[in-house]
Design brief:
about 110 residues; alpha+beta; Arc Repressor Mutant, subunit A
Length: about 110
Amino acid sequence: MDSLFKKIEVLRAIAHPVRIRILEELTKEMKCVSDFESFSGINQPNFSQHLSVLRKHGVVDCYIDGRLRCYFLVNPMLPELIEALKKERTTLPAPASCQVHRKGKYTGKSNKK
């Protein structure tokens, strides 16, 4: 169960438009803070807070190269998750019939009242 809670915390940590954008960029390659500033449109202190949240939850890590702080992904589920978030499909296809009883047909309307 502990592992499930850690995954939930990761999902909470990435659930912000700026953080999703950061992760999209990091799936392409490692980036330094100055690389992020060119696309983020937010100030550096605010951007650093987003990176700090991601780092705290083990999503990204960084190393310092002289005056540069370079970030990279460390959580292996992130590239696939980011790719899934990019998909445009709005709904899954409806089942032809109930998988248990093999009866009925989905009419496209909900049975909720």
